[in-house]
Amino acid sequence: MKISTSTAALLSDLQTVARVASTRSAIQALSGVQISATDAGVELRATDMEIGLRMPLAAEVTRPGEAVLPARLLLEVVRQLPGDQVTLELRPENQDVELVAGTASFHLRTLRAEDFPVLPEPGGDTTVAMPSRAFVETVTRVARSASRDETRPILTGILVSATGSELRMVATDSYRLSVKETTLDAPLAEGFEANVPARALEELSRLVTPETETISVGVRANQVVFSVGASALSSRLIDGQFPNYRQLLPETFEHELTMSSDELLAVARRIALMAQKNAPLRLSFTEGELRISAQTPDVGEASDTLPVPFAGEPFEIGFNPEFLVAGLESAGGQDVVLKLISPLRPGLIESADGSGFLYLIMPIRLNV
User: Fold this and answer.
1) Domain definitions of the chain by residue range
2) Please, which pLDDT band fits residue 118 given cuts at 50, 70 and 90?
3) For the CA atoms of the chain, what is the radius of gyration?
């Protein structure tokens, strides 16, 4: 294998592909990037066995071939290379790849190519063309609610459902729940439902550029492949029954308050600075007013007030500050509707603009 390419192009593609390479696998090749050069062109590949990425590289192929190089090291080397052009040549007798750029040359030892798995081709049993902007925006609105706890793998995914003219995504970590329903401009030819790892969808969001109009979603029995231009991101699907989110949503609420999203978010962020060491944000409602406060021993305390259309008996509820701020940020729009039942029942944040976003958040029991 011998190829020549722009240093900037190689660096840009490596920054994307290297994120997918494994950092903790016992199989050394999974920590690498596979460079595959054929007469048809050059492709960079990486996988951690859960997510795989194939990305084309604009390069001139002098001699076809394949090599697997350590992803992190290769990225750091290319980042420091002088000159605009770089040549990579596999030297099988030395089991390394020679990189030459300007006056600099590097020899990087290759990883075992036979240990690098074959990544799936685009397509699937069901293939759906999806408007990229709507898809990525929906991912962005719900992704933060997905769990990061690998001991409950079912909650580390985002339930993606697409049928007719509706795209819906749901994510929960059992402390909060995000639902975003997006109406598509044109109905889909086919539909699907799959629990996709949140990390895969977040990587997909990085692949989509403002110029990307559509993405192709290919769903198989236990796998999904997203095609973005000439790049393909594959991911395993998460087995098991995703929680029935509709059962988690209360049917009625005691209070429904429409408030300025920006004002409420600004106050929550401000007061959250004093909510440390698992201290809650306290939301105290009285006639026409909301007081948000926080107190952390040995750190300090803070409070601020907002006018709100509240009527009835005084009411106080506590929320995790990070979760509350995340919900308000994800809601977007000028106004949000805050729906409450009691201090020990979940609260609901809903976009007031009809954009189909719901955010259920569990309360924290307050020590009065």
Assistant:
1) 2-115, 126-245, 249-361
2) very high
3) 25
Kindly compute the dihedral angle of the four CA atoms of residues 143, 149, 153, 158, in this order, to the nearest 10 degrees: -10
pLDDT of residue 177: 98
**pLDDT at 345 (0 to 100):** 96
Question: How far apart, in whole angstroms, are the C-alpha atoms of residue 258 and residue 135?
Answer: 28
Q: Give, in order, the Cα–Cα distances in Å from 314 to each of 66, 125, 255, 288, 289.
A: 69, 56, 12, 10, 10
Q: Which CATH superfamily is domain 2-115 in?
A: DNA Polymerase III, subunit A, domain 2 (3.10.150.10)
User: pLDDT at position 236, please?
Assistant: 97
Domain range 249-361, its CATH number among 3.40.190.10, 3.90.180.10, 3.10.150.10, 3.20.20.150? 3.10.150.10
How far is the C-alpha of 301 from the C-alpha of 286, rounded, in Å?
Answer: 20
Per the DSSP assignment, residues forming a β-bridge with 317 are: 283
Distance (Å, whole) CA 366 – CA 319: 9
- Spatial strand order of the sheet with 300-307 comes to 300-307, 289-296, 281-286, 315-319
Which pairing describes strands 32-38 and 65-70: parallel, antiparallel, or unpaired?
A: antiparallel
Residue 184 sits at φ, ψ, to 5 deg, of: -85, 150
Distance CA 66, CA 343 (A): 61
Q: How confident is the model at residue 123 (pLDDT cuts 50, 70, 90)?
A: confident
- Higher pLDDT: 114 or 221? It is 114
Q: Which amino acid is at 69?
A: L
Mean residue pLDDT across the chain: 96
pLDDT tens profile 240-295: 999 999 999 999 999 999 999 999 999 999 999 999 999 999 999 999 999 999 99
Q: Which amino acid is residue 2, in one-letter code?
A: K
Looking at residue 368, its pLDDT comes to: 64
Distance of CA 309 to the CA centre of its chain: 35
Mean pLDDT in residue range 163-175: 96
The residues that bridge with 181 in the sheet, in sequence order, are 168
The stretch 230-245 carries a mean pLDDT of 96
Phi, psi of 270 (to 5 degrees): -65, -50
* Encoded amino acid at 347, one letter: G
Distance, in Å, from the CA atom of 312 to the CA atom of 47, rounded to the nearest integer, reads: 56
Q: In which element (H, E) is residue 220 found?
A: none
